[in-house]
Amino acid sequence: MMQPRKHFCTRCQKGFCSVPAKQQHISNSLNHNICCLCSSRPDYSTKETLIARFPYGQKGPGALFACNRQFNKPCQLVQHDVDKHNMCATCRQYFNSPSNLKSHKITHAGRNIDCPGCSRRFPTNSAMMLHLEAGTCHSGVDLDELNQLAFNCHQAQSYKSNNPDFDFECPSCQTPFLFMSGLLQHAESDCCEEELGSGDPLGIFLEFARSRIVCESS
């Protein structure tokens, strides 16, 4: 059964079944331009508007406000921002941590992860899982079925949360998550040492879920 999409992005005219799903969309979509240096994280309508707010943008390409350093060439400033200030070299957006920058770079990556229930492809396992959780897959798999698969996997005790407010937790750092897609995204980042290898609990779950969904879809 498809989950109701109560959380709407007016800019993109898309609905989402949960707040985390909408937040992931805003973080990854090139239609949104978040200032990660501001505590309120304002979302600017264009990339140009976001870039223009930085003081060095007003002073010219030779000054950098965060370090108060001077550069003779624009390319030197760009390289410095990439190396020291978590700037994406592809789209020139800034991020408040290396892990957030790494997550963002996925938007520029190829789509190499196949959905086990349909023909769609995704850049990451977490994006594929979010697609299934949202109930948008032609296989009919939804959030409830995915959660049941997660609990039926023999590795469930490694990532099942004891916190009644959360279903899952990271096997390495015990950070709790409401959704498996959020846990997978956490493992894909540099937040902790958890990985999605074939011998890791989450990697084993992915193979288990994939095999079950393929069998049900065939």
Automatic annotation (TrEMBL):
**Record bears the keyword Metal-binding:** yes
Instruction: Give the range the annotation lists for the signal sequence.
Output: none
Q: For the C2H2-type domain, which residue ranges apply?
A: 86-113, 113-143
UniProt keyword annotations, A-Z:
Metal-binding, Zinc, Zinc-finger
In terms of SUPFAM superfamilies, this protein maps to:
beta-beta-alpha zinc fingers
Q: Which InterPro entries does its entry note? A: Znf_C2H2_sf, Znf_C2H2_type
Q: Which SMART domains has this protein been placed in?
A: ZnF_C2H2
Q: What is this protein called?
A: C2H2-type domain-containing protein
